Automatic annotation (TrEMBL):
Protein name: 3-hydroxyisobutyryl-CoA hydrolase, mitochondrial
Catalysed reactions, as listed in the record: 3-hydroxy-2-methylpropanoyl-CoA + H2O = 3-hydroxy-2-methylpropanoate + CoA + H(+)
The protein's role, per its UniProt record: Hydrolyzes 3-hydroxyisobutyryl-CoA (HIBYL-CoA), a saline catabolite. Has high activity toward isobutyryl-CoA. Could be an isobutyryl-CoA dehydrogenase that functions in valine catabolism. Also hydrolyzes 3-hydroxypropanoyl-CoA.
Major enzyme class: hydrolase
GO term, biological process aspect, one: L-valine catabolic process
The organism of origin for this protein: Psylliodes chrysocephalus
Length: 385
């Protein structure tokens, strides 16, 4: 072989190795941070997975949040792509940890996500969440604790865990209990989705902005002077004439039916309501895991007056404990994998769900690890992160 050919092959080999390393690095950048002077944009960067909050993303987000909260005057938080802010926790990753018996990794995933929620909640600088697209589960959790929460016509906001026989987590106990009337109980039990301006009207967003204006809003915020008011900038660009809340006609029914003390009583009141909305709600609830429904209602009732830390500890225990019972695996399988199959719940009827079974979901599991990490964060937040 000619020595020049050998030289070129060597150079090509080095280039390919370098390119592979760069590609590997890019693939592992689940969070991107863009700094603009004393402000920052943090981007959840898993668009193919709808920016699902897996282990790598959670830890990179913690690192980015810590740095930006300490060094910047403002943070914009958004998702990569135009489909999702975040579809929530990576359920397939959770399922894999469970099936491999990796309880430590499952616990760490839960704790790491909750650390980010707590960092956003306690941030000493404003955090502005652009809730464009799907904002489910953990994505709803992260956005709900931002200082400013910007919904668009594309926003889909939900805690849909009941649909897979799971429970609202990521601070859901806290913010669902602070929704108007019994709306949070309705959303937590049905898993229904709020869309567009309804997210604002329900109180889960502070502002409503057309998606075509988000880039203008971002630039206005990032390049504003210290004298400019963030409130005024956001108010000027966001919409003022917002459509009425689509659930307004049934809010009285929601408040009456979902104030009932048990799932059975909720279903009874819905049957008595007799409207098409009530009939559809009953039809959906009866498809869900009886155990999940009873645990979710107890979760919301127990956490009604909890602070965020207490909610996160309770939810950590619940999340791990749910995987000791069959329904969440069955729900994940029939919803995400073998779509369309009718789930076989165990137990299959509400009256078969005992108090003992409900209480087992609240037993100590990941809570102490969550408490330990929150205590560390509290010390750091009170001084310097």
């Amino acid at each position: 072989m000619h020595k020049n050919s050998s030289f070129l092959l060597t150079r090509l080999s080095k280039y390919l190795k370098s390119a592979c390393r760069m590609l590997s690095t890019a693939e592992n950048q689940h969070v991107l941070t863009k700094e603009v002077g004393d402000k920052a944009v943090i981007i959840l960067n898993r668009p193919k997975s709808l920016n699902a909050l897996g282990t790598i993303l959670n830890r990179q987000l913690t690192e980015s949040l810590r740095k930006c909260i300490n060094e910047k005057s403002l943070i914009i938080l958004k998702g990569a792509g135009d489909k999702a802010f975040s579809a929530g926790g990576d359920l397939l990753e959770v399922k894999a940890y469970f099936e491999d018996g990796q309880w430590k990794k499952l616990t760490e995933l839960i704790v790491d996500l909750n650390i980010n929620i707590y960092l956003i909640h306690t941030s000493k600088v404003p955090v502005i969440a652009f809730m464009n697209g799907i904002t489910f589960g953990g994505g709803a959790g992260i956005s709900s604790f931002a200082t400013y929460k910007i919904a668009t016509e594309n926003t889909q906001f939900a805690m849909p865990e009941s649909k897979i026989a799971f429970h609202p987590n990521s601070g859901g106990t806290y913010f669902l209990n602070r929704a108007k009337g019994r709306l949070g109980y309705y959303l937590g039990l049905t898993g229904n989705t709020l869309k567009g301006s309804d997210v604002f009207q329900a109180g889960f967003a502070t502002h409503y902005c057309l998606s075509k204006n988000l880039e203008t809003l971002e630039k206005a915020i990032l390049y504003s002077s210290k004298q400019d008011s963030i409130n005024e900038i956001i108010d000027d660009i966001c919409e003022r004439n917002i459509p009425d809340f689509s659930l307004a006609p049934v809010m009285d029914s929601i408040n009456r039916c979902f104030a009932a003390p048990t799932v059975e009583d909720i279903l009874k009141k819905l049957d008595e309501d007799g409207t098409d909305w009530a009939k559809k709600t009953v039809e959906n609830l009866r498809k869900y895991s009886p155990t999940s429904l009873k645990v979710i209602l107890r979760q919301l009732q127990k956490g009604r007056h909890f602070n965020l830390e207490e909610c996160l500890v309770m939810e950590s225990n619940l999340t791990v404990n749910f995987y000791h019972f069959p329904d969440v695996i069955e729900g994940t399988r029939t919803t995400l994998i073998n779509k369309g199959e009718i789930a076989q719940w165990n137990p299959s009827r509400l009256e078969s769900v005992t108090e003992e079974l409900i209480n087992q979901h609240f037993e100590e599991s990941a809570g102490e690890e969550q408490r330990k990490m929150l205590r560390k964060l509290q010390i750091n937040v009170n001084s310097k992160i």
